[in-house]
Amino acid sequence: MENSKIITEIENTVLKWEETSTGNGDFGAITFLYRGKEFGHIHKTGDLDISFGEQMTEELLKKKLVKKHLYVPKTNITYPVLNEEKLPFAISLLRISYLSHYIKANEKDMFSQGIFESELAKLPERLTSVYLKQK
């Protein structure tokens, strides 16, 4: 699967999530937005960039699940989505970023807490363990 098809697949998946949209980012990237706030972006090269903060970024790098972001290595990650096999993990990375934004926006809503926990349980264990460790 070529980059444009992979990017389209990711974009179509993200747009199914509640209150998401896309926009145009720097260097021709497609940004993924929750209520207008970016939770990740992907470049035409297939490089997916997400800001997770220092702790989560450090843990993901330590487990060698992602690469250091070129310009913001302390808080951001890059995950090269170079082929179809990398697609599910890329979507999982975006999903955990989306869920983090979702829960912050709805932190007083107990129903949202339940949704977050059930959604988190659906993600790959290697990713959720990193997320839970940084909490």
Automatic annotation (TrEMBL):
It comes from the Bacteria. It holds the Pfam family Luciferase. Residues 36-97 form the Luciferase domain. This is Luciferase family protein.
